[in-house]
Structure formats: C-alpha cells, structure tokens
Amino acid sequence: ASVWISRQSKRIMSISIGGVESFTTVDFPHRLAAVLFCRGCPLRCPYCHNPELQMFAGKDYISWETFIEFLKTRQKLLDGVVFSGGEPLAQAELRSAMEQVKSMGFEVGLHTSGVNPQRLAEVLPLITWVGFDVKTDFDNYGRIPLANGKTAEKCLDLCLESGVELECRTTLDPRVIKKDELLPMAEKLAAKGVKTYAMQEFRPHPNDKTAPALEQRTAFFTDKKMLERLRGLFDEVIIRRA
Fold it and tell me: Average of pLDDT values for 151-180?
C-alpha cells in the first residue's frame, strides 16, 4: 500500500489507491471534487461496476504521497475529495487519510456500502456528505456474497444520527432487489429519516455473464405509479439512467 509519514507524529500511514478521478461535478453534490478510489472490497455484488477494485492485493495506481502532491495543486480550485472504491471503510488508515485531506482545506465525501460501523463512527466527524449504497432490504442481504444486512443497517443509522448530508442509493439489479420489493424498502428508509434517495439503473459489466435482460433492468423506471409513490416518500428522488 502507499505510505505517508506524518511530520507531526512520524507515524506511517498507509492506504491502497486503485484509481483517481481528478475532477468531478457529480460525485459530491454541489461541489467540485476529486475522487480517490480505494482498492479492495469485502463484498461481491453481482452488478459491481468496478470488479477490478475488489481485490486488496495488487499494485497501487499511484502512491499516497503522489496523491497529496496532486491535491496541493488543486487547493482553492476544488472544494472536496470523495473517498470511493472498492470500499473505503475496508481501509484501516481511512481516518488518517481523511484528516490529512481535511487539513489541506478540502471537504470530505464518502461512498460506502456500510461494512464497518466502528470505522464509520471514527470518520463521520470528518465527513460532509455520504453516498450510502443500500443494496436491497436489509433482511435480504443474504443475496449478496459476504454482505451483512445488520451491519449495513447499523452504518446507515450512524449516518442518520450524525446529521451528515446523506444520499441513499440503490443499483436496481433484479438479482438483488425485485421490482415489487423496491417500494416497501423505500418506505422503511423514509421511516428512518432518509430524505434523499437515488434509483440507479444497472449497467452490466462486459464480464457479467448472468446479467438480467434489458427489459427487466428498466422495468423499475417505467412504472409511473410506483415512481409517483416513491417521490412522495422523500424530499428528493434522483433517477440515474444508464
């Protein structure tokens, strides 16, 4: 993994970087940001769009030092940095990395599936906004290899309790969530206090040999009655089509 040594503590900090997006207007709402893609994810979602980032082993895209040098050239130009992945909460030194970025004047965003409540609790005070992947109803997380619905729900509750800006989103893969399950799940999220919800169309990866047919994937977006009921549950409903 990449290494950074704090001048203050002389402590070695490591974080594994799988990629970087130098500029985005969509990954951190209302902010200009860079995205750091962390290597490694403990989940195996069938619709994963970045399967090359699932493995923890491998050569880093760039070193942490190089990323920090890049950020120095973007101070006062970018508003924030989004930690994405992979799964950032799988990085043992996530808090140290976020502290370093925040100390440079950047706001911090996080994309997560909620795999580690303890680590999330450590970093939430540093974070402005969270994009939280709700895979399906928490009781149905057994459909996803290695996923734990109780853990994910605990992480969502932590986000809600913290008051951080929050967007919940679901990638609508019929293998994971069925069309008639979407509204009941959304009702539970709204009851918890979720205000912003995004529906994301599933785009099959070229290596996905079991992807559902197009008509199954798009059926979520053609049911006008269901969409109207969803919009009544949240302050904002975002629809992201492929």
Answer: 97
Q: What is the mean pLDDT of the chain?
A: 93
Name the nearest CA neighbour of 202 among 144, 141, 116, 135.
135
Indicate the residue type of 142.
G
Tokens 């206090």, located at residue:
193
Say if residue 3's pLDDT is above 60: no
Q: What pairing do the DSSP bridges indicate for beta strands 2-5 and 196-201?
A: unpaired
Q: How is residue 216 written in tokens?
A: 């199954």
Q: What is the DSSP string of 15-83?
A: E-EEEEEEEESSSSTTS-EEEEEES--S---TT-S-GGGS-S-S--SS-HHHHHHHHHTTBTTB-EEEE
3-state secondary structure of 165: strand
Amino acid at the residue 30: H
